[in-house]
């Protein structure tokens, strides 16, 4: 079998570990031939790929980013786009199947290629937001939480020095898992997530309560958080290739509002792409490697249109349709646990 691997959408730590796990499993156990499509779906529609052999993946588990590069290209657009053109490209090059490593947008596109064109795809979930349904955790999330937690620890010392309120913005378009975990780990005094809009009055009340106890308030906010009355998440950066708003900047909106409501000097920090960079944590290296191994086995079992997933501590399979049919939102019970520490 000849399998094409691609990494698409936002990058995250652990992508290279998936590639390494898949190539080693395929070569050692099945004598599989691999190619890597460059720049995600862009490489697929432009027929731009390179061979992937065992030598190419040496030591990759500890390396951040992706050796194949990534983009937010839509595989249904362009001269070489669409299932018929992609299948012809695969036939020309003897490629039997695609291993698609990506998040919500990438896997939705993969599902459409399977549903509408019968393109043989196996999905591997990738998102630092941890927002994909049907998997308990996705690789990259643990690393992002560690980076955000360190940022909180660092902001706390400068906040204490000046008696300021610090507002840290982390990633999380639709869900607040990074904000929740890093906020709890770093001892944040308020955690604002997309699943639970709040009023500026409530936020100010929490901040003032912290100030009254002689502490410097620290607020963690997910980029997709909305204040009461907002109809969509804050964005002033246009749209991406899948026509979704590019988010970022809600912390810079909140900080002056908090200062105006409380009189406490407030500063915003937008962590941004730092959360995506650097080497993956040990947990993410192991999870990504396991997913790569099991993705190859799924291909040999003919589990087309399915995605490998983490359930508890075991790697299982689900349909990509199930994985992309809903969001892995923060449950009310988990947010209630965190709210005990607000204010």
Automatic annotation (TrEMBL):
It is found in: Cytoplasm. Its main location: cytoplasm. Keywords: ATP-binding, Cytoplasm, Glycolysis, Kinase, Magnesium, Metal-binding, Nucleotide-binding, Transferase. Residues 2-298 form the Phosphofructokinase domain. Substrate binds at residues 127-129, 164, 171-173, 223, 267, 273-276. GO terms for biological process: canonical glycolysis; fructose 1,6-bisphosphate metabolic process; fructose 6-phosphate metabolic process. It catalyses: beta-D-fructose 6-phosphate + ATP = beta-D-fructose 1,6-bisphosphate + ADP + H(+). Its cofactor is Mg(2+). The record marks 105 as: Important for substrate specificity. ATP binds at residues 10, 72-73, 103-106. Mg(2+) binds at residue 104. Pathway: Carbohydrate degradation; glycolysis; D-glyceraldehyde 3-phosphate and glycerone phosphate from D-glucose: step 3/4. Its EC number is 2.7.1.11. GO terms for cellular component: 6-phosphofructokinase complex. The keyword Transcription does not apply. GO terms for molecular function: 6-phosphofructokinase activity; AMP binding; ATP binding; diphosphate-fructose-6-phosphate 1-phosphotransferase activity; fructose-6-phosphate binding; identical protein binding; metal ion binding; monosaccharide binding. It holds the Pfam family PFK. The active site is at 129 (proton acceptor). Catalyzes the phosphorylation of D-fructose 6-phosphate to fructose 1,6-bisphosphate by ATP, the first committing step of glycolysis. Homodimer or homotetramer. Belongs to the phosphofructokinase type A (PFKA) family. Mixed-substrate PFK group III subfamily. PANTHER family: ATP-DEPENDENT 6-PHOSPHOFRUCTOKINASE 3 (PTHR13697:SF52), PHOSPHOFRUCTOKINASE (PTHR13697). This is ATP-dependent 6-phosphofructokinase. It comes from Agromyces seonyuensis.
